Amino acid sequence: MFRRSTTDRAGFGVLTYFYGLVTFVGLLVTLGTGFLLVRGPFFGGRLLEPTPLMVALAGFVVGIVVLAWGASRVAGVGSRI
């Protein structure tokens, strides 16, 4: 059975890059949907219709969750020692 090195606590490997990519995707989703949500009231555009507004809000929440999950995995928070 393969044992992980005890000196590599950060775990910089393929999974770290994968979680970094997940974090980046979460950041992009959060920024994109956040812009759609604030575009109307704060930038002089019109407000979205109710259905697209709820979809953008759901996308924003999903983006925050994906961003937090990926960032915590990259940082190694909650991993076993």
Automatic annotation (TrEMBL):
Keywords (A to Z) from UniProt = Membrane, Transmembrane, Transmembrane helix
Organism equals Halogeometricum limi
Give me the segments passing through the membrane.
Answer: 12-38, 50-71
Instruction: Identify one Pfam family in the record.
Output: DUF8132
Cite the DUF8132 domain residue spans from the record. Answer: 3-80
Task: Name the chain's protein.
Answer: DUF8132 domain-containing protein
Question: Per its UniProt entry, which superkingdom is the organism in?
Answer: Archaea
